[in-house]
Design a protein that fits this description.
By secondary structure, the protein is of the alpha+beta class. It folds into 2 domains: about 5-40 and about 240-255, no CATH class; about 80-210, no CATH class. The chain has 7 helices and 9 strands; from the N terminus they run H-E-E-H-H-E-E-H-E-E-E-H-E-H-H-E. The chain has helices spanning about 5-15, 55, 60-70, 100-105, 150-160, 195-210, 210-235; strands at about 20-30, 30-40, 75-85, 90-95, 110-115, 125-130, 135-145, 185, 245. Strands 6-7-3-4-5-8 form a 6-stranded mixed beta sheet. A 3-stranded mixed beta sheet has the order 1-2-9, covered by helices on one side. Strand 3 (about 75-85) and strand 4 form a beta hairpin. About 10% of the residues are buried.
């Protein structure tokens, strides 16, 4: 296996070997940035197409196509953001799904949800399947954590310097049942709660609770690796490396 140093050396040699029409060098702290205008590289010939097997060559009937499409799971997207308050409860802003026309016209409609589930280990991007409903959920969302200790430190820090600090700590609108996973939607009188909200939240919470121990282990492992890397880089800061940037015109005559 070729190591990283060899790959970098090979890549640098490849960049330096290109025919240069113009060049300039920028001197940065401890390293140089070389910007070259080069001749466009010659494109490699496309590989021959792969031969199709007998199954791919045969003609499918309309009934077969319809059956294949019907067997495919439905894809749905979940978009939300989460604030976790300690390990006590979580506040969710859920965004109502929109079609293409709605996305052009207006911002997504958001609904506020509170739960006593600690969602600190929820991954930002994930895909999971609900076999019962034959649905694949594509989840995208980001989680931030607010702790009582951090808020107390911020308050004390602000007081020492003579200015007020408005705590970010919030409390749920209801009292949850101990030892029971629950969530509540903050209702607004002027609008109805979409049924997709309950479908998506039920599916997401079920998936999260079933995999919480694994998510927690993965999160803690990533934190250990992140801290170890930060400590290593602090003790062994990388040396700045020279950078080569090659560019070429994309149209005939050099017009950009």
């Amino acid at each position: 296996m070729v190591d990283q140093a060899t790959r970098e050396a090979n890549r640098k040699a490849e960049l330096e070997s290109m025919s240069t029409a113009d060049s300039r060098v920028l001197q940065k702290e401890g390293h140089r940035v070389t910007i070259n205008r080069v001749e466009p590289p010659k494109l490699k010939a496309a590989p021959a197409p792969l031969s199709l097997n007998s199954e791919a060559k045969r003609t499918w009937t309309e009934e077969e196509w319809a059956a294949m499409i019907a067997a495919q799971p439905e894809h749905r997207s979940i978009s939300l953001s989460v604030k976790v308050f300690g390990e006590e409860y979580s506040k969710i802003l859920w965004r109502k799904p929109r079609d293409t026309e709605e996305r052009r016209k207006e911002a997504p409609e958001e609904f506020e949800i509170w739960t006593n589930i600690n969602l600190n280990y929820l991954r930002p991007i994930s895909t999971f399947t609900v076999e019962r409903d034959n649905v694949v959920y594509d989840y995208m969302g980001f989680t931030s954590t607010i702790t009582r200790e951090a808020e107390a430190w911020r308050r004390a820090y602000a007081k020492e310097r003579g200015y007020d600090y408005e705590s970010r700590w919030q409390t749920p609108p209801v009292r949850f049942t101990d030892e029971t996973a629950e969530y509540v939607v903050v209702e607004a009188e002027e609008r109805q709660i979409p049924p997709e909200l309950y479908q998506q939240m039920d599916a997401l919470f079920r998936h999260y609770l079933e995999n919480e121990e694994r998510f927690k282990a993965e999160f803690l492992r990533s934190e250990v690796l992140r801290k170890a890397r930060e400590a290593y880089l602090k003790e062994n800061p990388p040396e700045p490396k020279d950078v080569i940037i090659n560019h070429w015109p994309i149209s005939e005559g050099g017009a950009r």
